[in-house]
């Protein structure tokens, strides 16, 4: 996705003016659960900007999301915000065409802070949203995760790999929660489903208090604080920029493919490489400090994206330097007003 595209969608600095949206005869009624969160708010931006005259509903309980992420759409006639906890059924009489089901805390500190809430969101929340999809005839996309592969013994990970998850560890509420979400959508009958296995994403609107590594490293480097590397620094992930992820999710939703598809970037970085990159891009004088590795932290992860390439014609377009530069710009913009929270 080109830089120009991002600037068109450059809504993430909380603007007061939004671009005019052209009319489109193929307008769809779309519900985005978790729409006030990091990924959901970008999905909503894209749907609103696409010119599809998308009537977008955002459903969220603001557990980890923020109304500010979608505030720029608040007065738009195509947009509606529903405050709702998906662990309760949603009995509304609206015929949605599409449901992007993204509601679930995604950062380890957040999903581990109340593991039962995470499990209830993954199980009951997904079940309730499937019920809604069935009642309304909506196509349903589940945001699953690379975490279902656990600490993988196969590298890189294709969709056919069954994973290596500790079912009683601190990450289990999320990993097993998402595995049960997948089991639910494939057991449920009568709903047209799509399943995205999302690998680590980053970008503007990641909350500075999110706790995920790029958010922490950027917050720390902008403040001149040492970057907290957990473990010996050799742990790796493959980080995708938010706009690539949104491209992939929208393509998957409109595809005819119902099996899981990995959406991720194949460029793998260990923590030392990532920390040095963030320090270089932000021009920071920060150091690195080492802290204990979290229990069950997967040691390495990289997607096999052959399926996404073949079925969706999708592959990431943003390299990590570009993405981190733009994310750093956003963190700088908000760092003053959010300082007390950090
Ligand atoms: P996020 O925490 O920023 O957003 C999640 C949103 O869901 C928040 O707005 C939160 O308030 C809402 N939510 C949580 N529980 C809810 C409930 N019970 N009822 C209603 N709303 C609820 O997370 P994110 O990074 O935007 O992730 C979005 C989705 O993508 C999640 O399902 C996550 O598992 C998946 N995912 C994300 C990543 C990533 O790197 N960001 C990677 C893999 C999978
Ligand atoms: N991590 C780190 N410092 C931080 C936060 C995370 O070194 O301040 C590490 C974490 O232990 C993991 C990697 O960064 O090895 C990615 O963590 P994140 O929480 O971003 O994503 P996930 O573990 O869910 O893939």
UniProtKB/TrEMBL annotation:
Keyword Lyase listed: yes
First-level EC class: lyase
Membrane-related topology note: Single-pass type II membrane protein
Keyword vocabulary terms for this entry: Decarboxylase, Glycoprotein, Golgi apparatus, Lyase, Membrane, NAD, Signal-anchor, Transmembrane, Transmembrane helix
Pathway assigned to this chain's UniProt record: Nucleotide-sugar biosynthesis; UDP-alpha-D-xylose biosynthesis; UDP-alpha-D-xylose from UDP-alpha-D-glucuronate: step 1/1
Compartment(s) of residence: Golgi apparatus, Golgi stack membrane
InterPro entries: NAD(P)-bd_dom, NAD(P)-bd_dom_sf, UXS-like
GO biological process, one term: UDP-D-xylose biosynthetic process
E.C. number(s) listed in UniProt: 4.1.1.35
Domain called NAD(P)-binding: residue spans: 31-327
Key word Lyase present: yes
Catalytic activity: UDP-alpha-D-glucuronate + H(+) = UDP-alpha-D-xylose + CO2
GO molecular function: NAD+ binding; UDP-glucuronate decarboxylase activity
Principal localisation: Golgi
Gene Ontology CC terms: Golgi cisterna membrane
Pfam families membership: GDP_Man_Dehyd
Stated family: Belongs to the NAD(P)-dependent epimerase/dehydratase family. UDP-glucuronic acid decarboxylase subfamily.
Protein name in the entry: UDP-glucuronic acid decarboxylase 1
